[in-house]
Specification:
By secondary structure, the chain is α+β, with helices and mostly antiparallel strands. It has one domain: Aminopeptidase. 34% of the residues lie in helices and 22% in strands. A five-stranded mixed β-sheet has the order 1-2-3-4-5, with helices on both faces.
């Protein structure tokens, strides 16, 4: 029988402005994975998307957008974020404040090591500490089993995309 040390659990820390480039790369990696089957268009579109996201992060990080990084062995293994936004109070969410989780990303080298679960757990703790009753996200097919396991349910969310 071989003695094996348990893998190091991810260490979660809040992202700061100095992490913006990492968050940008993770967002673009997440977008690539989600939209991989679609034609990405000319190279200029990806440059435009990078710059648009860089500007957006600079304007929102630390305001209505908060992110966390997961680290394993001193390396960034993944990240996830949440947008906080006011919504009119409703019976299911009397405070009105809502949390929209986005940009959940795990570096391929660290997958299947609890990174996304640890990040999601931290975000849910933060949302609940703020009294938020409505927490939602859009799930990739790969992420859906984790979110369902963590208590998320399918809803009547619809969208209209003008293309």
């Amino acid at each position: 029988m071989t003695d094996r040390a348990a893998p190091e659990p991810p260490r979660i820390r809040e992202a700061t402005g100095s992490d913006a480039e990492t968050l940008l790369e993770h967002r673009l990696g997440m977008l690539e994975a989600v939209f991989r089957s679609r034609d990405p268009g000319p190279e200029e579109a990806s440059v435009d998307m990078r710059e648009a996201n860089r500007a957006w992060l600079a304007a929102h990080l630390g305001d209505d957008f908060q992110a966390w990084l997961a680290e394993i062995d001193g390396q960034v293994a993944g990240s996830a974020a949440v947008m906080w936004f006011p919504h009119p109070p409703a019976p299911v969410n009397p405070s009105g404040l809502e949390a929209y989780i986005l940009n959940v990303f795990t570096d391929a080298r660290f997958r299947r090591r609890g990174v996304a679960r640890a990040l999601m757990t931290r975000i849910l703790e933060e949302a609940r500490s703020r009294g938020i009753k409505r927490i939602w996200l859009r799930a990739s097919e790969e992420g859906r089993p984790l979110y369902l396991d963590m208590g998320f349910r399918e809803s009547n969310y619809l969208q209209l995309l003008d293309e």
